Amino acid sequence: MISLVIFLGEFGPTEIILVLAVILLFFGGKKIPELMKGLGNGVKEFKNASKGDQPSDKTEENV
């Protein structure tokens, strides 16, 4: 199996800028903050789940 790093090579600043430009053109400037907020919430939930923390929902505790 060919390693993904070998297949794609290393990312330099030019490639990163190109990818960010394509994302900006694809989603538009107004949608990107919403996408980043959703990504941040997803990462936070994943970390909490991996630690075994449960969300502090008051409705679940009272039921």
Could you please describe the fold and organization of this structure?
- It is built from four helices and no strands.
- The protein is mainly alpha-helical and 63 residues long.
- It has a domain at 11-49.
- The longest helix has 20 residues, at 32-51.
- The N and C termini lie far apart (51 Å).
- The model has no long low-confidence stretch (mean pLDDT 77).
Brief digest:
Helices cover 71% and strands 0% of the residues. With 63 residues, it is mainly alpha-helical.
Straight-line N-to-C gap: 51 Å
Question: What is the overall pLDDT average?
Answer: 77
Which range does the strand content fall in?
Answer: under 5%
Helix content: over 70%
The number of E-state strands comes to 0
- Largest sheet: number of strands, sense, barrel closure: none
Tell me the number of helical segments per DSSP (H or I, 4 or more residues long). Answer: 4
List the uncertain runs: none
Shape label: flat
The secondary structure category is mainly alpha
Radius of gyration: 19 Å
Q: What order do the SSEs take from the amino end to the carboxyl end, as H and E?
A: HHHH
Function: Part of the twin-arginine translocation (Tat) system that transports large folded proteins containing a characteristic twin-arginine motif in their signal peptide across membranes. TatA could form the protein-conducting channel of the Tat system.
GO molecular function, one term: protein transmembrane transporter activity
Transmembrane segments: 6-27
Keywords: Cell membrane, Membrane, Protein transport, Translocation, Transmembrane, Transmembrane helix, Transport
